[in-house]
Amino acid sequence: MHLHPVCPKSVFESLPGAAQGLLFLAMVSALPLLGCGAGEGSPSPLIHRNLSLASEPTLFTGVNAGSSNNCGVKTDGTLACWGDDSEGQSSPPTGGFTQISAGNYHGCGVDTAGAVSCWGNNDGGRATPPTGSFTQVSAGTAHTCGVKTDGTLACWGINSYGETSPPAGTFTQVSAGMQYSCGVKTNGTVACWGLNFGRQASPPAGSFTQVSASYGSTCGVKTDGTLACWGFKHVPGSPPTGTFTQVSVGTYHTCALRQDGTLSCWGANDQGQATPPAGLFTQVSAGGFHTCGLRQDGTVECWGSNFAGQTTPP
């Protein structure tokens, strides 16, 4: 016989047989009033409520995948990072933020006042941002770039190939890759600077809404929603047809968000990084050998390599 914890076994067994039966019937009748079930397989409604509260997912407004970690902005504006933390890249500061970027071994974010904060590896000053007010920041392999509120660019960190020497003019978005960067100008054209061994810094003509720089190849979303990619073809395959709102280039794979909210990925898939889940998303970010996406309900889902816990979001 199973005894509910509300009745100690010693008390029950000390009673005569008839009294045990009466007490048992009384206990069973009283269990619903106590919010209890009659057996081990029927936890109380109170326990159900506590478990549901504890298992509610963390909600985000943005996510960004780094080499082997990720960072995201939660709905309350605070940051959460997970995955590899060997250089402190998954230990962000406190406070409220509007945008986040995870690099190779460092991360940066724009706080609610417009200032940039960075953390993690600081070799070459990659995690030492300048003062000023920014609207967006992008952490690359060993350097970082940001768009100031006046539309001009600022870059910092290692400058082996001119990657921290952006062109003049005003921009709406910037993306820092491995020793090169690209940005979308206010007139819609793309400008790139830095290492150009595979012509990854030689964008095509045309008007774009967004660009993504990586290790040796670059992709952008044109104003008509189609994709264009250029540079060293270390990402196998060609971009899919159709219309898109965002693209993200990883180490050897690329993912893009279609206008209908579904995801398409191509390139290396040895870790499952180019096999996105079904469902509707608002953002996608391709990392080293993994990918993360922000679903329309605010939850984050990641797939691919998980050797450092990078595909296990909070």
From TrEMBL:
Highest taxon, organism lineage: Bacteria
Membrane topology: Single-pass type I membrane protein
Keywords of this entry: Disulfide bond, Glycoprotein, Membrane, Receptor, Signal, Transmembrane, Transmembrane helix
Major location category of this protein: membrane
EC number: 2.7.11.1
InterPro entries noted in UniProt: RCC1/BLIP-II
Subcellular location: Membrane
Reaction it catalyzes: L-seryl-[protein] + ATP = O-phospho-L-seryl-[protein] + ADP + H(+); L-threonyl-[protein] + ATP = O-phospho-L-threonyl-[protein] + ADP + H(+)
Pfam entry (one): RCC1_2
Protein name: non-specific serine/threonine protein kinase
Organism: Hyalangium rubrum
Taxonomic lineage from the root: Bacteria, Pseudomonadati, Myxococcota, Myxococcia, Myxococcales
